[in-house]
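Lab meeting, action items carried over

1. Structure of the two-component assembly. Owner: GW. Status: complete.
Input record:
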Amino acid sequence: MSDVSDPAVTRRDALAAGGATTVLGFGFWTEAFAADGAGAGGTVLITGASRGIGFEFAKQYAQAGWTVIATARNPATAEPLKALAKAHKNIRIEALDVTDVKAVDALAEKLKGTAIDVLINNAGISGGAQNQKVGTIKYEVFDDVMRTNVMGPIKIAEAFTPHVAASTQKKIVSISSTEGSLTGISGRPDVNSIFYRASKSALNMAMINMAKALKDKGIIVVMLSPGLVQTDFVGDLRLPIMISPEQSVAMTMPIIARVTMADTGKYFRHTGELAAW
Amino acid sequence: MADDVKRREVVMAASIIPVMLGMGVGIEGAAAQGAPATTVLVTGASRGIGIEFVKQYAARGYNVIATARDPAKATELNALAAQHKNIRVERMDVLDHAGIDALAAKLKGTPIDILVNNAGIGGGGVNQNFGKINYAVFDEVMKTNVEGPLKVSEAFVEHVAASTQKKIMMVSSSQGSIASVRSASLYFYRTSKSALNMVSVNLAKALKERGIIVGMVAPGATDTDFMIEVRGRMPLGKPAERTAGMIAQIDAFTMDKTGQFFEWTGEQIPW
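Predicted assembly:
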């Protein structure tokens, strides 16, 4: 698994709206869901919960009173997550490497009988900018990116379908990125994250299929772009349009709460607008 | 797994051969006039759409470098090469990056006008049904359909840059069109083609300054071994017709279309 350290690439969402729009969007959704941004309580499973957006989802869902199953590749070193779980008895930590198909099955088996209202496929890697420059591409990193960002979410959705189907809310959410938007990227000059972008286009395709496959079971599948969020994922990159993980999650949780079967297969920006394929 | 995973390169309908034979005349003509020879490299050229590209480009008088994983077993391609002196068969497995680099080194100094990244696999429909997805084929599909074309393009970029036409063409698929999905199937194949499209869009940007055009073309559902699982259950086009359509789109590709995705009919495919 590659570390994500290069600031130049690791943008989750470089097409994030400008600051003003972001604030407006936030305000709109906050108002609409003022009572409870998290929606009705339930159980949420979040992958990649040790850091960044994943950690923030665990925190905000726990604060909203949800039962949180927070997975991390290596819980032993996930100090903030452990501290969070100590402070919130409704957080349960489980070890999970999303690229390990057998481990995903084992966790699904261990959680058999547990209804999961919201499954958040959050774990993802960027691959690092230095590894994806045309001319000197590191293909072993490409493999890792595709396995983590595409195969992992497909496998997790497949393995946890019974848990989600047994729940009340029945939602599978995959954290994508507008970096995976072919329409958006076509109009931009930069080429600095060829694997990451390809992985997110592929993830979107996988989730559209998943939405079709699971409709009969009443399961809603949506994709969310979290905005350009200031996390370890973007390294030292700091831009005016960046938002904090707190802001991003506070904006996306109400979207997750409001989506219905009419929205299945949709790809939302953190502002609530639809993103283009 | 090799039996389950259908390679795109497939045996072409025998009925097309007589049509193509009549077109082999132009070769000597172009060479005799001393016009700069147009060179095409086609991956996955032993069967199906790949061998059809070879036939049609050879019939035009282009120099064709036809690659196959195992040329010794590519009987039909070898027979074609024996008839057309402008076809050269080379070994290339798009999964073998060192092998790709070695072929690029061997062909150093040979300008390649059109690089046709055709080799691809479907991964087997039975391996991609929800609830029974076989993750063992994921890597092979991604490596063949996404990394392969990118690696081949990377390795041959100097050859293309040194040519007249300067085109890198990806045989993609409308199955990779996210906007067009109507029902679930072929998770890996579809995701691989969406990923290939995104790779191609980025490659188009990266190579624009060098005057290299990068495009995606799609054959539609074509009657090759690639479609063996659905043959008889859906209408399938003739390989010769579909390939001729893709060649027409490749001919029409100009720098203002770089990074775009066309069906064999010329219709632009939505992302």
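2. GW to write a short summary for the group page. Key points so far: Chain B is about 35% helix and 10% strand. The first strand of chain B starts at residue 39 and ends at 42.
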